[in-house]
Amino acid sequence: MAKRGTCRCWVALLLLQAISLHFGLDFAKRVGMPRRPKSNPRARDRAASLLQVDSPESIPTTRSWNRAPAKSLRLPADKGCCSFRVKRHWRWRQMIEEPLGVYEFCNSTGPPRFHAIFASAPGEEEFLGCFRTPRDAAVAWDRRARRAEWPVLNFPVDGEEEGPTLLQDRFTFYRSKGFPYPPTSAAWRRNQLQDLLKLNVTGVWRSQWMLQLDDLQRSPGDELCWSFHPHSFAVSKTKGANKEMGPVKKPSALETFSSNAGLMKSLRTCLERCGDPACSPETLRGECKFHDDSMIFQGGGSWIANFPATVAAAIYQRFAPGGVVYDACAGWGGRLLGARLGGVRKYIACEPSSKTFAGLEELSNLLSPLEVELHRCGSEDFDVEEEVDVAFTSPPYFNTEWYSDERTQSHVRFPTVEAWRNGFLQPMLAKMVTALRPGGHLILSVTTRRAHRRSGLDLEGDVHQIVEELGLVQEPTLTMLKTGTDNGRKGRPIFVWKKAAG
User: Fold this and answer.
1) DSSP secondary structure of 120-176
2) Which CATH class for the 192-223+305-498 domain?
3) What pTM, to 2 d.p., does this model score?
4) Which of 217, 231, 437, 488 could form an SS bridge with 387, CB 3.0 to 4.6 Å?
């Protein structure tokens, strides 16, 4: 009987949890049950700071994404400290009024704990302590914000602004002004290019085969490229496939901004995650890419990325100094801009999207004396008329990003993985190899994620098989390291092959 009663209790708890999730209630918080959030790299980064400190006077510990920490801040769960951050599933009022910089964590030995985490800059976070109440954590965050001379605080005094007031003011401002597109004036663009030309692009090399930027999410040159492609903020990524309806899209940055919940979440993380008390347009654009339009702080947006221009420039300088290069999938212009920064003589590229092609043409007019030859077509149909020193690109991942619905798009023209592999990927690679001079290099930035494998796409494996059949010899792989790590296994591979001389 006792066992039967216990089973009934558990069934009742499970039913209550299902009801609470259906109506958007935070069940774990209400009944004191710890709940592990879904996998979220940003949540895991914050969850790694797990020191148990009760005093708000505790010495801050810096956790930087720009360099690898000396040792992990995580403590074993049996020490009683927090194990997992509770996912923020807030109502509108909570999204505005909950204290800034305070994160609730489950605790293995008692009530939840509250961590104070202060972002002094994008990718630079300070763990300020683990506290018994959210108010104590908020006070610790305020103390650090005052040292940084922030104008916004949880508990302001004379001349300081309260967090909810600033969030509501910025929300009203951006609602009245509309989406914060990058500047497009000729003077701004020229100044951006001049600043980029002063950079020492060889500084991205960390070793002979490893490259790294301080912040891959906001790499130098991105803003200049985005200013020529305002339509990029309306591009969506896919998050899986429905058997009846096909690919399911994530919200674009523009859709997240248009949603009240998405905009408020993005403004809040401008403060909490990026360390930008002004909620500047550049920071907000990035946060709208990261977030979806729900009331849950879990990412889920369409993070549309551009290949880092300085990384492309460093690769061009090594493999094609003053040479001719071919980019089969020009995309948002990162490798085009990199060709100018890297001293390339001539850049040849294909781009099938009409809007993106127009943006690339406009960008190319800024990059004199670089000679640019652009072709509005799919690279599976284009034959390069001259030999090139390097063929370097990052191909589309089938239908992961919906750049447009035009027939020239490879995933539209070839709607299944097998058709795309045979109709686009294989001929594109074959034409890149044919264009190479003897001794030239084929360089591809590709990887395969679990989501791709679930859809039957092994892009990395397919590329290796095709290139091997074309007779090229593989050289050591380059690795573009993730921000804040020196571990080559946690980077993006850039594969290099060499065409036989003669």
Assistant:
1) EETTEEEEEEEESSHHHHHHHHHHHHHHTT-SEESS--TT-EEHHHHHHHHHHHHHH
2) alpha beta
3) 0.79
4) 437
